[in-house]
Amino acid sequence: MVRGARKFLALGVAAAVVYSIKELNFVPGPRHAAPVAAAAAASMMMAPAAFADEIGDASKKLGDASYNFAKEVDWNNGIFLQAPGKFQPLKALKAIDKMIEMGAAADPKLLKAAAEAHHKAIGSISGPNGVTSRADWDEVNAALGRVVASVPKAKVMAVYDAVKDITDPKVPAYMKSLVNGPDAEKAYQGFLEFKDVVAKNQVTAASAPAVVPSGDKIGAAAKQLSDASYPFIKDIDWLSDIYLKPLPGKTAPETLKAIDKMIVMGAKMDGNLLKAAAEAHHKAIGSVDSKGVTSAADYEAVNAALGRLVASVPKDTVMDVYNSMAKIVDPTVTNNMFSKVNPLDAVAAAKGFYTFKDVVQEGLIQLKRRLLKVALEGRGIYPQMCKQLWIRRCSITPFLAPHPMQIYAKVMRGIDKAAFPGTCQGRVERLIKALSRPLSSDRLPMKAGGLKNLQEHEWFEGFDWNALQAGELPPPYAPDVADDEDLSNFFADPKDIPETAPYVDPEDGSGALGRRLCHSGLKTHSLFEISRRF
Questions:
Q1: Do 175 and 295 fall within a single domain?
Q2: Gene Ontology terms, cellular component aspect (predicted)?
Q3: In terms of CB atoms within 10 Å, which end of the chain has fewer, N or C?
Q4: How confident is the model over 284-326, as pLDDT tens digits?
Q5: CA-CA distance, 302 to 284, in Å (whole number)?
Protein backbone atom coordinates (compact mmCIF):
# COMPACT_ATOMS: atom_id res chain seq x y z
CA MET A 1 0.00 0.00 0.00
CA VAL A 2 0.98 3.59 -0.49
CA ARG A 3 1.92 4.20 3.12
CA GLY A 4 4.58 1.50 2.95
CA ALA A 5 5.81 3.11 -0.20
CA ARG A 6 6.64 6.32 1.64
CA LYS A 7 9.31 4.54 3.63
CA PHE A 8 11.27 3.97 0.46
CA LEU A 9 10.64 7.30 -1.22
CA ALA A 10 13.89 8.75 0.08
CA LEU A 11 15.60 6.05 -1.95
CA GLY A 12 13.71 7.26 -4.97
CA VAL A 13 15.00 10.77 -4.43
CA ALA A 14 18.59 9.56 -4.28
CA ALA A 15 17.96 7.43 -7.34
CA ALA A 16 16.43 10.33 -9.22
CA VAL A 17 19.51 12.47 -8.74
CA VAL A 18 21.71 9.81 -10.29
CA TYR A 19 19.23 8.76 -12.97
CA SER A 20 18.71 12.26 -14.32
CA ILE A 21 22.36 13.25 -14.45
CA LYS A 22 22.73 11.91 -17.96
CA GLU A 23 19.56 13.68 -19.11
CA LEU A 24 21.12 17.04 -18.15
CA ASN A 25 24.56 16.22 -19.53
CA PHE A 26 25.86 16.63 -15.98
CA VAL A 27 28.92 14.72 -17.17
CA PRO A 28 29.27 13.42 -20.71
CA GLY A 29 28.88 9.66 -20.88
CA PRO A 30 27.44 6.78 -22.87
CA ARG A 31 23.69 6.14 -22.81
CA HIS A 32 24.05 2.69 -21.31
CA ALA A 33 25.24 4.22 -18.03
CA ALA A 34 21.71 5.03 -16.95
CA PRO A 35 20.38 1.54 -16.20
CA VAL A 36 23.18 0.62 -13.85
CA ALA A 37 22.94 4.02 -12.19
CA ALA A 38 19.30 3.28 -11.51
CA ALA A 39 20.12 -0.13 -10.13
CA ALA A 40 22.79 1.11 -7.78
CA ALA A 41 20.58 3.84 -6.37
CA ALA A 42 17.54 1.60 -6.06
CA SER A 43 19.63 -1.01 -4.27
CA MET A 44 20.59 1.33 -1.43
CA MET A 45 18.49 -0.87 0.85
CA MET A 46 20.40 -4.04 0.06
CA ALA A 47 24.20 -4.03 0.25
CA PRO A 48 26.57 -7.05 0.74
CA ALA A 49 30.07 -7.26 2.22
CA ALA A 50 33.07 -7.04 -0.11
CA PHE A 51 34.88 -10.06 -1.48
CA ALA A 52 38.15 -10.18 -3.41
CA ASP A 53 36.68 -10.02 -6.93
CA GLU A 54 36.39 -7.72 -9.90
CA ILE A 55 33.57 -5.69 -8.42
CA GLY A 56 35.44 -5.34 -5.13
CA ASP A 57 38.53 -4.06 -6.91
CA ALA A 58 36.45 -1.67 -9.01
CA SER A 59 34.75 -0.29 -5.90
CA LYS A 60 38.12 0.88 -4.58
CA LYS A 61 38.72 2.84 -7.79
CA LEU A 62 35.24 4.30 -7.46
CA GLY A 63 36.09 5.28 -3.90
CA ASP A 64 39.19 7.12 -5.09
CA ALA A 65 37.03 9.11 -7.49
CA SER A 66 33.98 9.69 -5.30
CA TYR A 67 34.87 9.93 -1.61
CA ASN A 68 35.56 13.67 -1.71
CA PHE A 69 32.12 14.13 -3.22
CA ALA A 70 30.60 11.89 -0.53
CA LYS A 71 32.10 14.05 2.21
CA GLU A 72 30.51 17.17 0.70
CA VAL A 73 26.97 15.75 0.67
CA ASP A 74 24.89 16.66 3.72
CA TRP A 75 23.48 13.23 4.44
CA ASN A 76 21.43 14.68 7.31
CA ASN A 77 19.50 16.99 4.99
CA GLY A 78 15.73 16.51 5.20
CA ILE A 79 15.47 16.99 1.45
CA PHE A 80 15.91 13.25 0.98
CA LEU A 81 12.46 12.73 2.53
CA GLN A 82 10.80 14.81 -0.16
CA ALA A 83 9.30 13.59 -3.42
CA PRO A 84 11.71 14.15 -6.36
CA GLY A 85 9.20 16.42 -8.05
CA LYS A 86 5.42 16.69 -8.04
CA PHE A 87 3.75 14.62 -5.30
CA GLN A 88 2.23 11.66 -7.18
CA PRO A 89 1.69 8.85 -4.65
CA LEU A 90 0.16 6.25 -6.95
CA LYS A 91 2.71 6.89 -9.66
CA ALA A 92 5.50 6.77 -7.09
CA LEU A 93 4.09 3.47 -5.87
CA LYS A 94 4.65 2.01 -9.33
CA ALA A 95 8.30 3.03 -9.18
CA ILE A 96 8.66 1.50 -5.72
CA ASP A 97 6.99 -1.65 -7.00
CA LYS A 98 9.76 -1.97 -9.59
CA MET A 99 12.34 -1.61 -6.81
CA ILE A 100 10.58 -4.37 -4.86
CA GLU A 101 10.63 -6.61 -7.93
CA MET A 102 14.32 -5.94 -8.32
CA GLY A 103 14.95 -6.78 -4.67
CA ALA A 104 12.97 -10.02 -4.97
CA ALA A 105 15.12 -11.04 -7.94
CA ALA A 106 18.42 -10.37 -6.14
CA ASP A 107 20.56 -13.10 -4.58
CA PRO A 108 19.40 -13.57 -0.93
CA LYS A 109 22.96 -14.16 0.28
CA LEU A 110 24.03 -10.88 -1.29
CA LEU A 111 21.09 -9.11 0.31
CA LYS A 112 22.15 -10.38 3.72
CA ALA A 113 25.73 -9.31 3.14
CA ALA A 114 24.37 -6.00 1.86
CA ALA A 115 22.53 -5.25 5.06
CA GLU A 116 25.60 -6.16 7.09
CA ALA A 117 27.76 -3.80 5.01
CA HIS A 118 25.35 -0.92 5.60
CA HIS A 119 25.15 -1.70 9.32
CA LYS A 120 28.93 -1.56 9.55
CA ALA A 121 29.01 1.69 7.56
CA ILE A 122 26.49 3.31 9.89
CA GLY A 123 28.82 2.45 12.77
CA SER A 124 31.66 4.50 11.29
CA ILE A 125 29.63 7.63 10.50
CA SER A 126 31.26 10.85 11.73
CA GLY A 127 31.41 14.58 11.09
CA PRO A 128 28.63 17.15 10.68
CA ASN A 129 27.53 15.76 7.30
CA GLY A 130 27.10 12.20 8.55
CA VAL A 131 29.53 10.50 6.17
CA THR A 132 30.85 6.96 6.71
CA SER A 133 34.53 6.00 6.62
CA ARG A 134 36.37 5.57 3.34
CA ALA A 135 36.78 1.83 3.93
CA ASP A 136 33.07 1.35 4.59
CA TRP A 137 32.20 3.59 1.64
CA ASP A 138 34.15 1.20 -0.60
CA GLU A 139 32.55 -1.85 1.02
CA VAL A 140 29.03 -0.54 0.49
CA ASN A 141 29.74 0.41 -3.13
CA ALA A 142 31.06 -3.09 -3.77
CA ALA A 143 28.00 -4.54 -2.07
CA LEU A 144 25.65 -2.48 -4.22
CA GLY A 145 27.49 -3.56 -7.34
CA ARG A 146 27.16 -7.23 -6.46
CA VAL A 147 23.46 -6.95 -5.72
CA VAL A 148 22.88 -5.19 -9.04
CA ALA A 149 24.93 -7.83 -10.85
CA SER A 150 22.66 -10.55 -9.42
CA VAL A 151 19.60 -9.03 -11.15
CA PRO A 152 18.83 -9.25 -14.90
CA LYS A 153 19.24 -6.03 -16.88
CA ALA A 154 15.53 -5.84 -17.77
CA LYS A 155 14.56 -5.41 -14.12
CA VAL A 156 17.24 -2.76 -13.68
CA MET A 157 15.87 -0.85 -16.67
CA ALA A 158 12.35 -1.09 -15.26
CA VAL A 159 13.52 0.71 -12.11
CA TYR A 160 15.28 3.38 -14.13
CA ASP A 161 12.28 4.09 -16.35
CA ALA A 162 9.80 4.20 -13.46
CA VAL A 163 11.88 6.56 -11.31
CA LYS A 164 12.66 8.83 -14.25
CA ASP A 165 8.92 9.30 -14.76
CA ILE A 166 8.43 10.80 -11.29
CA THR A 167 11.59 12.94 -11.20
CA ASP A 168 11.53 16.64 -11.98
CA PRO A 169 14.35 17.41 -14.49
CA LYS A 170 15.43 20.34 -12.30
CA VAL A 171 16.32 18.10 -9.38
CA PRO A 172 19.84 17.01 -10.50
CA ALA A 173 20.99 20.57 -11.20
CA TYR A 174 19.78 21.68 -7.78
CA MET A 175 21.48 18.77 -6.02
CA LYS A 176 24.71 19.51 -7.88
CA SER A 177 24.57 23.10 -6.67
CA LEU A 178 24.84 21.86 -3.07
CA VAL A 179 28.31 20.34 -3.59
CA ASN A 180 31.57 21.09 -5.37
CA GLY A 181 30.83 20.65 -9.07
CA PRO A 182 34.21 19.19 -10.17
CA ASP A 183 34.12 16.64 -7.34
CA ALA A 184 30.63 15.57 -8.40
CA GLU A 185 31.75 15.22 -12.02
CA LYS A 186 34.78 13.16 -11.00
CA ALA A 187 32.55 10.92 -8.88
CA TYR A 188 30.18 10.38 -11.79
CA GLN A 189 33.00 9.51 -14.17
CA GLY A 190 34.25 6.97 -11.62
CA PHE A 191 30.74 5.59 -11.42
CA LEU A 192 30.58 5.08 -15.19
CA GLU A 193 33.73 2.96 -15.01
CA PHE A 194 32.34 1.03 -12.04
CA LYS A 195 29.04 0.26 -13.78
CA ASP A 196 30.94 -1.29 -16.70
CA VAL A 197 32.49 -3.82 -14.32
CA VAL A 198 29.08 -4.52 -12.76
CA ALA A 199 27.49 -5.00 -16.19
CA LYS A 200 30.26 -7.40 -17.16
CA ASN A 201 29.33 -9.61 -14.19
CA GLN A 202 25.54 -9.26 -14.49
CA VAL A 203 23.29 -12.33 -14.66
CA THR A 204 20.98 -12.87 -17.63
CA ALA A 205 18.16 -14.86 -16.01
CA ALA A 206 16.03 -14.20 -12.96
CA SER A 207 16.09 -16.53 -9.97
CA ALA A 208 13.20 -18.89 -9.21
CA PRO A 209 10.20 -17.61 -7.22
CA ALA A 210 10.13 -18.13 -3.47
CA VAL A 211 8.64 -21.24 -1.89
CA VAL A 212 5.61 -19.97 0.03
CA PRO A 213 4.61 -21.94 3.16
CA SER A 214 0.97 -22.93 3.53
CA GLY A 215 -1.25 -24.52 6.13
CA ASP A 216 0.76 -23.14 9.05
CA LYS A 217 -0.49 -21.45 12.21
CA ILE A 218 0.85 -18.07 11.12
CA GLY A 219 -1.14 -18.27 7.89
CA ALA A 220 -4.34 -19.04 9.81
CA ALA A 221 -3.64 -16.24 12.28
CA ALA A 222 -3.01 -13.83 9.40
CA LYS A 223 -6.53 -14.47 8.12
CA GLN A 224 -7.98 -13.64 11.55
CA LEU A 225 -5.88 -10.48 11.76
CA SER A 226 -6.89 -9.43 8.26
CA ASP A 227 -10.58 -9.98 8.92
CA ALA A 228 -10.33 -7.88 12.10
CA SER A 229 -8.25 -5.06 10.63
CA TYR A 230 -9.32 -4.64 7.00
CA PRO A 231 -12.03 -2.05 7.87
CA PHE A 232 -9.30 -0.05 9.62
CA ILE A 233 -7.08 -0.34 6.54
CA LYS A 234 -9.86 1.12 4.40
CA ASP A 235 -10.24 4.05 6.83
CA ILE A 236 -6.64 5.21 6.28
CA ASP A 237 -5.80 7.92 3.77
CA TRP A 238 -2.95 6.17 1.97
CA LEU A 239 -2.58 9.06 -0.48
CA SER A 240 -1.71 11.63 2.20
CA ASP A 241 1.69 13.32 2.19
CA ILE A 242 1.92 13.02 5.98
CA TYR A 243 4.12 9.96 5.60
CA LEU A 244 6.84 12.17 4.11
CA LYS A 245 6.95 14.41 7.17
CA PRO A 246 9.94 14.06 9.52
CA LEU A 247 9.27 12.82 13.04
CA PRO A 248 8.85 15.86 15.29
CA GLY A 249 11.79 16.78 17.49
CA LYS A 250 14.14 14.12 16.16
CA THR A 251 17.39 14.63 14.28
CA ALA A 252 18.58 12.54 11.35
CA PRO A 253 21.27 10.77 13.45
CA GLU A 254 18.66 9.82 16.05
CA THR A 255 16.39 8.40 13.38
CA LEU A 256 19.30 6.59 11.76
CA LYS A 257 19.85 4.57 14.94
CA ALA A 258 16.36 3.12 14.59
CA ILE A 259 16.90 2.45 10.89
CA ASP A 260 20.12 0.63 11.75
CA LYS A 261 18.19 -1.73 14.03
CA MET A 262 15.84 -2.46 11.13
CA ILE A 263 18.80 -3.23 8.88
CA VAL A 264 20.23 -5.63 11.47
CA MET A 265 16.85 -7.34 11.68
CA GLY A 266 16.69 -7.60 7.91
CA ALA A 267 20.12 -9.22 7.80
CA LYS A 268 18.90 -12.01 10.08
CA MET A 269 15.77 -12.82 8.08
CA ASP A 270 15.35 -16.06 6.18
CA GLY A 271 16.26 -15.44 2.53
CA ASN A 272 13.39 -17.43 1.04
CA LEU A 273 10.82 -15.82 3.35
CA LEU A 274 12.20 -12.37 2.56
CA LYS A 275 11.78 -13.06 -1.13
CA ALA A 276 8.26 -14.39 -0.53
CA ALA A 277 7.34 -11.21 1.36
CA ALA A 278 8.63 -9.02 -1.48
CA GLU A 279 6.60 -11.03 -3.98
CA ALA A 280 3.50 -10.72 -1.78
CA HIS A 281 3.94 -6.93 -1.66
CA HIS A 282 4.38 -6.80 -5.44
CA LYS A 283 1.13 -8.71 -5.92
CA ALA A 284 -0.66 -6.50 -3.37
CA ILE A 285 0.45 -3.35 -5.18
CA GLY A 286 -1.11 -4.81 -8.31
CA SER A 287 -4.55 -4.83 -6.68
CA VAL A 288 -4.38 -1.34 -5.14
CA ASP A 289 -7.45 0.77 -5.92
CA SER A 290 -7.75 4.50 -6.53
CA LYS A 291 -7.60 5.14 -2.77
CA GLY A 292 -4.38 3.20 -2.33
CA VAL A 293 -6.01 0.15 -0.68
CA THR A 294 -5.07 -3.37 -1.73
CA SER A 295 -7.54 -6.26 -1.92
CA ALA A 296 -8.54 -8.20 1.20
CA ALA A 297 -6.90 -11.36 -0.14
CA ASP A 298 -3.61 -9.65 -0.92
CA TYR A 299 -3.68 -7.86 2.43
CA GLU A 300 -4.00 -11.24 4.14
CA ALA A 301 -1.13 -12.67 2.07
CA VAL A 302 1.12 -9.75 3.03
CA ASN A 303 0.31 -10.18 6.73
CA ALA A 304 1.10 -13.90 6.55
CA ALA A 305 4.37 -13.25 4.73
CA LEU A 306 5.47 -10.61 7.24
CA GLY A 307 4.51 -12.82 10.18
CA ARG A 308 6.62 -15.70 8.90
CA LEU A 309 9.45 -13.29 8.23
CA VAL A 310 9.43 -11.90 11.77
CA ALA A 311 9.29 -15.43 13.17
CA SER A 312 12.59 -16.17 11.41
CA VAL A 313 14.39 -13.52 13.48
CA PRO A 314 15.44 -13.83 17.16
CA LYS A 315 13.05 -12.07 19.52
CA ASP A 316 15.71 -9.78 20.99
CA THR A 317 16.47 -8.44 17.50
CA VAL A 318 12.79 -7.76 16.87
CA MET A 319 12.48 -6.02 20.22
CA ASP A 320 15.51 -3.87 19.41
CA VAL A 321 13.55 -2.47 16.47
CA TYR A 322 10.45 -1.91 18.59
CA ASN A 323 12.36 -0.19 21.38
CA SER A 324 14.37 2.01 19.02
CA MET A 325 11.19 3.17 17.28
CA ALA A 326 9.50 3.84 20.62
CA LYS A 327 12.32 6.27 21.43
CA ILE A 328 11.81 8.42 18.34
CA VAL A 329 8.02 8.38 17.89
CA ASP A 330 6.37 11.03 20.04
CA PRO A 331 2.95 10.09 21.51
CA THR A 332 1.46 13.05 19.66
CA VAL A 333 2.18 11.22 16.40
CA THR A 334 0.17 8.21 17.53
CA ASN A 335 -2.69 10.39 18.72
CA ASN A 336 -2.73 12.34 15.49
CA MET A 337 -2.88 9.22 13.34
CA PHE A 338 -5.56 7.69 15.57
CA SER A 339 -7.70 10.79 15.15
CA LYS A 340 -7.81 10.30 11.37
CA VAL A 341 -9.61 6.93 11.44
CA ASN A 342 -12.66 5.28 12.97
CA PRO A 343 -11.57 4.56 16.57
CA LEU A 344 -13.62 1.36 16.81
CA ASP A 345 -11.96 0.00 13.68
CA ALA A 346 -8.54 0.93 15.06
CA VAL A 347 -9.21 -0.85 18.37
CA ALA A 348 -10.43 -3.97 16.58
CA ALA A 349 -7.30 -3.95 14.43
CA ALA A 350 -5.09 -3.58 17.51
CA LYS A 351 -6.75 -6.52 19.25
CA GLY A 352 -6.30 -8.63 16.15
CA PHE A 353 -2.66 -7.66 15.97
CA TYR A 354 -1.98 -8.62 19.59
CA THR A 355 -3.36 -12.10 18.95
CA PHE A 356 -1.38 -12.36 15.73
CA LYS A 357 1.92 -11.38 17.32
CA ASP A 358 1.46 -14.10 19.96
CA VAL A 359 1.17 -16.71 17.20
CA VAL A 360 4.25 -15.28 15.47
CA GLN A 361 6.18 -15.43 18.74
CA GLU A 362 5.10 -19.04 19.24
CA GLY A 363 6.44 -19.75 15.77
CA LEU A 364 9.79 -18.33 16.85
CA ILE A 365 9.77 -20.46 20.02
CA GLN A 366 9.06 -23.59 17.97
CA LEU A 367 11.97 -22.67 15.69
CA LYS A 368 14.26 -22.41 18.72
CA ARG A 369 13.09 -25.78 20.02
CA ARG A 370 13.74 -27.44 16.68
CA LEU A 371 17.23 -25.96 16.53
CA LEU A 372 18.03 -27.08 20.07
CA LYS A 373 16.69 -30.57 19.34
CA VAL A 374 18.92 -30.82 16.28
CA ALA A 375 21.93 -29.68 18.32
CA LEU A 376 21.20 -32.14 21.13
CA GLU A 377 20.96 -34.98 18.63
CA GLY A 378 24.37 -34.11 17.24
CA ARG A 379 23.12 -32.89 13.86
CA GLY A 380 24.27 -29.28 14.10
CA ILE A 381 25.93 -27.34 11.30
CA TYR A 382 29.48 -28.32 12.26
CA PRO A 383 31.20 -31.23 10.50
CA GLN A 384 32.84 -33.95 12.57
CA MET A 385 36.33 -32.74 11.72
CA CYS A 386 35.51 -29.26 12.95
CA LYS A 387 34.20 -30.65 16.23
CA GLN A 388 37.48 -32.45 16.81
CA LEU A 389 39.48 -29.30 16.03
CA TRP A 390 37.44 -27.30 18.52
CA ILE A 391 37.66 -29.74 21.39
CA ARG A 392 41.34 -30.58 20.92
CA ARG A 393 42.74 -27.16 20.08
CA CYS A 394 40.37 -24.73 21.78
CA SER A 395 39.45 -26.72 24.90
CA ILE A 396 36.06 -24.98 24.95
CA THR A 397 33.08 -25.25 22.63
CA PRO A 398 32.33 -22.51 20.04
CA PHE A 399 28.91 -21.60 21.41
CA LEU A 400 29.35 -22.41 25.08
CA ALA A 401 26.75 -20.73 27.31
CA PRO A 402 24.96 -21.57 30.56
CA HIS A 403 21.45 -21.52 29.05
CA PRO A 404 20.09 -23.09 25.83
CA MET A 405 18.58 -19.81 24.68
CA GLN A 406 21.96 -18.11 25.02
CA ILE A 407 23.47 -20.92 23.00
CA TYR A 408 20.77 -20.40 20.41
CA ALA A 409 21.62 -16.70 20.17
CA LYS A 410 25.30 -17.51 19.64
CA VAL A 411 24.46 -20.07 16.98
CA MET A 412 22.30 -17.52 15.16
CA ARG A 413 25.16 -15.00 15.19
CA GLY A 414 27.30 -17.59 13.43
CA ILE A 415 30.84 -18.90 13.50
CA ASP A 416 32.34 -15.54 12.51
CA LYS A 417 31.20 -14.08 15.85
CA ALA A 418 32.44 -17.03 17.93
CA ALA A 419 35.19 -16.30 20.47
CA PHE A 420 38.43 -18.08 19.60
CA PRO A 421 40.88 -18.48 22.54
CA GLY A 422 44.57 -17.83 22.08
CA THR A 423 45.30 -21.53 21.48
CA CYS A 424 42.81 -21.59 18.63
CA GLN A 425 43.70 -18.54 16.56
CA GLY A 426 45.51 -18.08 13.28
CA ARG A 427 45.54 -20.97 10.82
CA VAL A 428 43.30 -23.28 12.82
CA GLU A 429 40.75 -20.49 13.32
CA ARG A 430 40.65 -19.86 9.58
CA LEU A 431 40.24 -23.58 8.90
CA ILE A 432 37.39 -23.94 11.39
CA LYS A 433 35.57 -20.96 9.89
CA ALA A 434 36.06 -22.33 6.38
CA LEU A 435 34.55 -25.66 7.46
CA SER A 436 31.71 -24.13 9.45
CA ARG A 437 29.75 -22.01 7.01
CA PRO A 438 25.98 -22.22 7.67
CA LEU A 439 25.34 -23.26 4.05
CA SER A 440 27.00 -26.57 3.20
CA SER A 441 27.74 -25.33 -0.32
CA ASP A 442 29.94 -22.58 1.16
CA ARG A 443 32.14 -24.95 3.16
CA LEU A 444 35.73 -25.47 2.07
CA PRO A 445 35.50 -29.04 0.70
CA MET A 446 32.23 -28.25 -1.13
CA LYS A 447 33.61 -25.39 -3.20
CA ALA A 448 35.21 -25.75 -6.63
CA GLY A 449 38.30 -27.88 -6.10
CA GLY A 450 36.61 -30.17 -3.59
CA LEU A 451 38.79 -32.10 -1.19
CA LYS A 452 41.90 -30.52 -2.68
CA ASN A 453 40.90 -27.25 -0.97
CA LEU A 454 41.18 -29.01 2.37
CA GLN A 455 44.41 -30.81 1.56
CA GLU A 456 46.10 -27.59 0.47
CA HIS A 457 44.88 -25.49 3.41
CA GLU A 458 47.68 -23.78 5.35
CA TRP A 459 46.83 -25.69 8.54
CA PHE A 460 47.89 -28.96 6.85
CA GLU A 461 51.20 -27.58 5.66
CA GLY A 462 53.81 -30.36 5.77
CA PHE A 463 51.25 -33.15 6.17
CA ASP A 464 51.95 -36.20 3.95
CA TRP A 465 48.58 -37.03 2.37
CA ASN A 466 50.14 -39.69 0.11
CA ALA A 467 51.53 -41.54 3.10
CA LEU A 468 48.13 -41.39 4.75
CA GLN A 469 46.45 -42.88 1.68
CA ALA A 470 49.07 -45.63 1.42
CA GLY A 471 48.77 -46.49 5.10
CA GLU A 472 52.40 -45.58 5.71
CA LEU A 473 51.94 -42.50 7.89
CA PRO A 474 53.97 -42.87 11.11
CA PRO A 475 51.85 -42.61 14.26
CA PRO A 476 52.18 -39.32 16.14
CA TYR A 477 52.37 -41.26 19.40
CA ALA A 478 53.57 -44.81 20.05
CA PRO A 479 52.53 -45.82 23.59
CA ASP A 480 54.57 -48.09 25.82
CA VAL A 481 52.62 -51.24 26.66
CA ALA A 482 53.59 -54.18 28.83
CA ASP A 483 51.85 -56.82 26.70
CA ASP A 484 48.88 -57.37 24.40
CA GLU A 485 46.46 -57.11 27.32
CA ASP A 486 47.82 -53.82 28.71
CA LEU A 487 44.91 -51.33 28.38
CA SER A 488 46.31 -48.53 30.54
CA ASN A 489 46.92 -46.49 27.42
CA PHE A 490 43.16 -46.12 26.95
CA PHE A 491 42.46 -44.45 30.28
CA ALA A 492 41.96 -40.70 30.14
CA ASP A 493 44.30 -38.30 31.83
CA PRO A 494 42.24 -36.61 34.59
CA LYS A 495 43.10 -33.16 33.28
CA ASP A 496 41.59 -34.08 29.89
CA ILE A 497 38.20 -35.13 31.26
CA PRO A 498 35.48 -32.75 30.01
CA GLU A 499 33.54 -30.66 32.48
CA THR A 500 30.51 -32.32 34.05
CA ALA A 501 27.92 -29.97 35.47
CA PRO A 502 24.23 -30.02 36.44
CA TYR A 503 21.83 -29.37 33.60
CA VAL A 504 18.33 -28.05 34.19
CA ASP A 505 15.78 -28.16 31.39
CA PRO A 506 14.35 -24.61 31.02
CA GLU A 507 10.88 -25.99 30.25
CA ASP A 508 10.15 -28.66 32.86
CA GLY A 509 12.88 -28.03 35.42
CA SER A 510 14.19 -31.59 35.23
CA GLY A 511 17.90 -32.09 35.49
CA ALA A 512 20.70 -34.57 34.96
CA LEU A 513 24.43 -34.48 34.75
CA GLY A 514 25.76 -34.15 31.27
CA ARG A 515 28.81 -33.50 29.12
CA ARG A 516 29.20 -30.62 26.73
CA LEU A 517 28.98 -31.32 23.02
CA CYS A 518 31.83 -29.64 21.20
CA HIS A 519 29.68 -28.58 18.25
CA SER A 520 27.09 -26.63 20.17
CA GLY A 521 28.04 -26.10 23.80
CA LEU A 522 24.98 -28.10 24.92
CA LYS A 523 25.11 -31.06 27.30
CA THR A 524 23.98 -34.64 26.63
CA HIS A 525 21.94 -36.31 29.36
CA SER A 526 23.92 -39.05 31.09
CA LEU A 527 21.21 -41.35 32.40
CA PHE A 528 23.44 -43.54 34.47
CA GLU A 529 26.45 -41.31 35.12
CA ILE A 530 28.65 -44.41 35.18
CA SER A 531 31.76 -42.98 33.58
CA ARG A 532 33.66 -39.76 33.09
CA ARG A 533 36.06 -41.22 30.54
CA PHE A 534 36.24 -40.46 26.80
A1: no
A2: chloroplast; light-harvesting complex
A3: C
A4: 999 999 999 999 999 999 999 999 999 999 888 999 999 999 9
A5: 7
